[in-house]
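Please, structure for the following, as tokens.
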Amino acid sequence: MTAGRITGCYGIKGWVRVHPYTDQAESLLDFPAWWLEGGNGPEPVVIDAGRRQGRGLLVHLAGVDDRTAAEALRGRDILVREAALPPLGDGEYYWHQLEGLEVWCQDREGEAAGEQLLGRVAYLIETGANDVLVVRASPGSIDDRERLVPYLPGDVVKAVDLAAGRLTVDWFPEV
């Protein structure tokens, strides 16, 4: 599972800047193993040291000891094993679990008979106030528009069914 991305280097001793895709940046340092996505598949890396800086992390990887080597890692995704993720409570989901789900809107009375397919969750955006689902048109959707739907469980998001690959929202398309 993709857990972050190397966005650049820091200093001259091989440190890299990491943008974590987690709510708590430091939690990425707790994973026992990282892999970097590469052209030849995932490559394992060892973390020598790391710390939070601002909203991201500064990390030193074993064997990356100068700025040139660190710069070569820019843009690489950081992968972790899904089995290493901490368990979530009821009604909580990791973003990667929501990506790809079909998004259905209920009719105005909340009845299933009037549901319409808006599309599929392409990805999520963190806005500060609340997360936002980016929903792109898919085969069978009502039109070919991209929509931004607030991820507000209980208010806008009425149901998430991972097994069925479905997310039901109280969000009506403009007609």
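Residues 95-169 form a domain with the SH3 type barrels. fold (CATH 2.30.30.240). The mean pLDDT is 89.
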